[in-house]
Amino acid sequence: MSNRLIHNEDECKYEYHIDDHIAYITYDDQDGNMHLTETQVPDALAGKGLAKTLLEDVLEEIRKANKKAVAKCSYIVKYQEKNPEKSDLFA
User: Fold this and answer.
1) At 76, phi and psi to the nearest 5?
2) Looking at the whole model, is its pTM more than 0.85?
3) 38: which residues sit within 8 A by CB, 6+ positions away?
4) Cβ–Cβ contacts within 10 Å for residue 77, how many?
5) pLDDT tens digits for range 5-64
């Protein structure tokens, strides 16, 4: 599944717009550390690995900006635990 990541700076969200649905991750930028606070995937899009794809796209954007991610929601904490090879992306 290929989606275009949208950075909604006004609402501090990274989003995928799919059909009439929006999947998103919210953040709080604290001195270059991107505190990822919530991950939401609409029920209609659940179970397709969308949250993981969205998170990996967000992590790539954070890396390109020379910032670090801080896991602040349960989904991202679990992702970080399951993917120790990505530890360089997290503060």
Assistant:
1) -70, -35
2) yes
3) 24, 25, 26, 73
4) 12
5) 999 999 999 999 999 999 999 999 999 899 999 999 999 999 999 999 999 999 999 999
